[in-house]
Specification:
Helices cover about 20% and strands about 30% of the residues. It is an alpha+beta fold and about 230 residues long.
């Protein structure tokens, strides 16, 4: 799913003109992008305003980036068909969508946005965006458990990528992943006969949970978006 598009494609789709007609409109500098005439088939973003003869072809939208401290018991979805969903915690005029998931039993940082480019960039494993968690388990942690978790664990028919794992106390450890497999940490622990009793996400990339109250949101700063 692409969240940028070529100007010609946008004109064809929005104005129901042919490719040739769209090319001519661009070549004759009849199209304005952000009030500036263009004569090449440039890439248009969601935030760009596109006009033709004072007619709005695309109205650029304001991009929103929000951090939420999700409580346990809340599903990481905005679908109102699913009970205990994120709409019970957030109210925005524009439609947002969660960047990745955090399972119902877990708590901590979730990012929400209407920026498709940021969404794709963050969830794409090739970009190796770090996700940091603090995890509590049901029995004392051994050094072998820490080493094995860091090396990689066989789950869902594949071996997880090497990751950073650090013991905090007898029952708690920190883990930093660049993957996002389904219930990955819980499955990794289960393979070592450990059960997760508490799981909290502290960071995604440059965005930290810090002291954000449970169930509350805050705007993500421009500096935090830089990676």
């Amino acid at each position: 799913m692409s969240f940028t598009k070529k100007l010609q494609y946008l004109l064809v789709k929005k104005l129901q003109v042919s490719n040739n007609e769209a090319k001519i409109l661009i070549k004759e500098e009849k199209v304005l992008v952000n009030k500036v005439k263009v004569k090449t088939n440039i890439v248009v973003k969601e935030t760009d305003n596109v006009e033709l003869a004072h007619k709005i072809v695309q109205e650029g939208k304001e991009l929103i980036y929000v951090a939420l401290n999700k409580p346990r018991g809340i599903e990481s979805t905005l679908s109102t068909k699913i009970p205990n969903n994120l709409t019970e915690l957030i109210q925005f005029n524009q439609k947002l969508f969660p960047v990745g998931r955090l399972d119902k039993e877990s708590e901590g940082l979730i990012l929400l946005t209407n920026d498709g480019f940021f969404f794709n960039k963050t969830i794409n494993p090739e970009n190796e965006i770090e996700k940091e968690y603090i995890v509590t388990v049901n029995k004392p942690i051994t050094s072998e458990f820490i080493k094995s978790m860091a090396r990689g664990v066989q789950i869902l028919g594949k071996t997880t990528l090497p990751c950073f794992v650090e013991k905090i106390d007898d029952f708690t450890f920190k883990i930093i992943l660049i993957q996002g497999l389904n219930r990955q940490i819980r499955r990794m622990c289960y393979q070592h006969n450990y059960m997760v009793t508490s799981l909290k996400r502290l960071r995604i990339g440059n965005v930290f949970l810090k002291d954000l109250p449970l169930g509350k949101t805050r705007e993500i700063t421009k500096q935090e978006l830089i990676s």
